[in-house]
Specification:
It is a single chain. With 72 residues, this protein is mainly alpha-helical. It has one domain. Helix content is 86%, strand content 0%. It contains two helices and no strands. It is elongated. It starts with a helix and ends with a helix.
């Protein structure tokens, strides 16, 4: 039972951390590349590009990390 529960929790934790990192990198890139905020475009770039990408990558990395940790 514990064998699948630890990777699932790791994926959830990684998803939250990845989403926060995605928001941070999105806001940083908006400021760095001077993306227009006309009609909220900069918010859409962060919310629909960087946040889901960070969430998916964080969930995958967290799941794999905790899966390997549970096997050892």
């Amino acid at each position: 039972m514990k064998h699948w529960l630890l990777p699932l929790g790791g994926a959830a934790l990684g998803a939250v951390a990845g989403a926060v990192a995605g928001i941070f990198l999105g806001v940083l890139s908006v400021e760095l590349f001077d993306i227009s905020c006309f009609e909220g475009y900069c918010g859409f770039v962060v919310g629909f590009c960087f946040l889901p990408l960070g969430l998916l990558l964080g969930a995958a990395a967290g799941g794999v990390f905790f899966y390997r940790r549970a096997k050892s």
